[in-house]
Design goal:
Blueprint lengths: L8 E4 L7 E4 L1 H5 L1 H12 L9 E5 L2 H13 L2 E7 L7 E8 L2 E8 L8 E9 L3 H12 L3 E10 L5 H7 L4 E6 L4
Parallel strand pairs: 3-4, 3-7, 7-8, 8-9
Antiparallel strand pairs: 1-2, 4-6, 5-6
Length: about 180
């Protein structure tokens, strides 16, 4: 029986030399792989009250949208700066190879709503922490963060767990 990891391809030296890029587009394009990933991302939250699914730009939108549909819940995107049309809150953060700003609509979450944060990859944790800070400012109760891939050598899981955030990952890859 195939695992989620079997559907993910590795592309060497992308986007920079020395990086082993874990490409989830092959997972998404296979109906069995996508179903497996969605089911496994949801599994730890069976029976837990979830009000909204929050997806981190951009592959988190694909996963988050599918999970929201499966649960019959709303989906909220956290996007790169300048991509949302309404009034937003912003949060700067550091990437593995640069800096960026994430935004959320200021009316996307009601205080006290239980939200699940979803993305494809956990590396340094910078994007996820920025998202968590935005959600905290809106008064959300984040029940956890779910990722397809963890890159443990980059320390993101330790960062999130250091914030007392439950983390669920489907597979991991050593190295970068």
């Amino acid at each position: 029986m195939k695992t989620v990891k079997d559907y993910i391809r590795t592309i060497p030296d992308f986007p920079h030399e020395g990086i082993m890029f874990r490409d989830v587009t092959t997972l998404f394009s296979d109906p069995r792989g996508l179903r497996l990933a969605i089911d496994q991302l949801l599994h730890p939250y069976a029976g837990v009250q979830v009000d909204k699914i929050v997806g981190l730009e951009a592959r988190g939108f694909i996963l988050g949208g599918a999970i929201a549909h499966q649960l019959g819940k709303g989906f909220v995107p956290i996007r790169k700066q300048g991509k949302l049309p309404g009034k937003t809150l912003s949060q700067a953060y550091t990437l593995e190879y640069g800096e960026a700003v994430m935004e959320i609509h200021e009316d996307a979450i009601e205080p006290g709503e239980n939200v699940l944060v979803v993305d494809d990859l956990l590396a340094t944790g910078g994007t996820a922490v920025a998202g968590l800070k935005l959600l905290e400012r809106l008064g959300a109760d984040v029940i956890g963060c779910a990722f397809v891939i963890d890159l443990p050598d980059l320390g993101g899981r330790r960062v999130l767990e250091g914030l007392d955030m439950p983390v669920h990952c489907l597979c991991s890859y050593d190295g970068v």
